[in-house]
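Appendix B, example 12.
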Amino acid sequence: MTEPAPIPAMSPGEGVSLLYVATISHTIRRFLLPYAAHFRAIGWRVAAAANGATSDPVLREAFDALHEVPLSRSLLDVRGLIRGERAIEGIAGGHDIVHVHTPIASFITRLAVSRGAIPVRPCVVYTAHGFHFHRGGRAVTNVAFRTAERVAGRWTDRLVVINEEDYLAARRHRIVGPGRLVRMPGIGIDTDRFSRSSLAEDEPARVRRDLRIGADAPLFVVAAEYNRNKRVGDIIRALAEMRHREAELLLIGGGPGRAGLTALAEREGVGGRTRIEGFVDDLRPIVSAATALVLPSKREGLARSIMEALSLEVPVIASTARGNAELVGSDSGLIVATGDVGGFAAAMDWMIDHPAERHGMGVRGRARMVEGYDLEIVIERHEEMYRQMLAERRPTSAAGRVT
């Protein structure tokens, strides 16, 4: 077997320009700030483009430049899609690498770069946080999204996937060539920040006091947006089916489904044991106070909430949505079939009945996060990918394809 060609080193100050694109600024703020800090520290110029980017004070400090881009969140918003494409076309040409997240933004960005009158075409990376075609998806939408990904794959230097199901799907459907497909362990988790030692020793107890939850009461936490995909209502129903009637449920999130969840908890007779809260800036104290984190979603990419919980040594009960079993493994939590309310109830009862095993799951989960998903590891792999792309950079063909 021949050794791979070495990746050329670049010294600080070489002037590499990197642009991150997402539909909304929240995505950039939540996931990409450590990446901006790393690449700026080695001398690269790092910019970001999204809806709301220029009005975000945190992003103003984190990036060298910000661009407001009217990227639509709906495929039906034709005018919005056209405006987004034109805006990206005017921005992308000034960068060496364009790395886009979120599906609609990714298609528009790749289309804009391929069609734009750009003298030197930037390298284009798309990170798929879970393809919108997937097992269990409707046949019509699966075909539509799969076709869109195959078309856009022609304009993609690297397609990054973050779970096994998407990796196999990308290969099976030939979305990009094997040399342009990259498997990453998610976007990374700061295991130093998400650690028990990062919190005051009495922090879990304080959270429970603030919530008026007893120190010994079983507490299950769901951190998810209140929408159909997340299936949060399944856990309210599971709470009602549990043997342990003393168990409490805390929902952290937001979205249009909040009122419906409140009504459901009352109908199921668990309104007094269910707290439904909005988003919080720092989940660490709340998750650290939990008996287990529960994630019942229908669709995931590689769930950040699971990574955060395991890094905090909190075991997880998760659905069979893609990526969940990869994170939880066979020894850091329990996997339940999506939609199996009785199964979730049994798993929650099991966590209460087996405190020693539950503790061991948390310890093993943290070890898995530190060894395979730590932020430094993932950023280093991104840097290797970027440098490799720059080394093999080639002109754009007349059709806009990667040549």
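The CA atoms of residues 47 and 63 lie 5 Å apart. The two ends are 26 Å apart (CA to CA).
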